[in-house]
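Hi support team,

I submitted a single chain yesterday and got back a structure, but I'm not sure I'm reading the token output correctly. Could someone confirm the output below corresponds to the sequence I sent? I've pasted both exactly as they appear in my results page.

Thanks,
R.
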Amino acid sequence: MGRLSTAKKAAPRDAASKVAQQRLSVLELTRELGNIAEACRQRGMDRTSFYERKRRFQTQGFDGLKELPPIHKSHPQTTPPETVEKIKALALNTRRMAATGTRRC
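Hi R., thanks for writing in. Yes, this is the structure output for that exact sequence:
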């Protein structure tokens, strides 16, 4: 009388996989409805984001729907702030000298 369930238990998913699954559901809803605008409206997503996620899903698969790592605020080859200040001071000084330079008669 008691049947064993053949369905596998859902494996615990991390937050990134849950977000990716929600994004995948929009793609699936679009396929069902046949209307991108309506699917985006139902899920509260703009179409630009939809097309970006669709492209990432086509190129990278399920992992492409996960959040991208943040972009670093600094670049390794950024000019140090001290050097920037020296350049600004030199530029301002050059302008002052040009403004008070010699006049032709």
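A quick pointer for reading it: Helices lie at 15-33, 36-43, 47-60, 81-99. Let us know if anything else looks off.

Best,
Support desk
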